[in-house]
Amino acid sequence: MIGRLAAVALAGALLIAAAVRADDLVAEPDSYRTESYRAPVPTTLAGARVLSTQDTEAIWRAKSAAFVDVLPRPPKPKNLPPGTVWREQPRQDIPGSIWLPDTGYGVLAAATEDYLKRGLAQASGGDLGRLLVFYCLEDCWMSWNAARRALTYGYRNVAWYPDGTDGWSRANLPLQQIQPEPRPEE
């Protein structure tokens, strides 16, 4: 009888633990995320593959994809006192990536959307079937938004790496300092 009670208690505890974990999951939204971009992300992206660090590393080593970083670039502060030197913070990226900053917001200005479209065409060589891997940082909706947007542009082989450079760095994989792709007005 005691063994049976212990088994029932254990089963109940496991069910409660599973329910708590399910409550922690973030549901995939119906549209783009437009606020609180640094927050837990879903584990899915309809129409795209979601990659682990191990998956991403294998793709990177095989050179079988174009890697696209969409992390925003901090703007130069307005009204800096005369003579103030402004130095942009360097970005450490997965080697070989293209950096298209500010293209992961939920709503894009027309010029920013054109910049993203041109960057993706460059990264993919115009091949809508070329594998594109989107990332930024861990718990950052920017890469989720950008990958979803690429699907709407007709790209058929889209992957999302939700751990981004944080997960890459934790795995002691190489990083490389890169500059963003220039915008037409730059």
UniProtKB/TrEMBL annotation:
Xref: InterPro entries: PQQ_CXXCW, Rhodanese-like_dom, Rhodanese-like_dom_sf
According to UniProt, the name of this protein is Rhodanese domain-containing protein
Q: Is Ribosomal protein one of the keywords?
A: no
Signal peptide annotation? 1-22
Domain of life per record = Bacteria
List, for all copies, the residue spans of the domain called Rhodanese: 94-177
Which keywords belong to this entry?
A: Signal
Organism of origin: Bradyrhizobium oligotrophicum S58
SUPFAM superfamilies to which the protein is assigned, alphabetical: Rhodanese/Cell cycle control phosphatase (SSF52821)
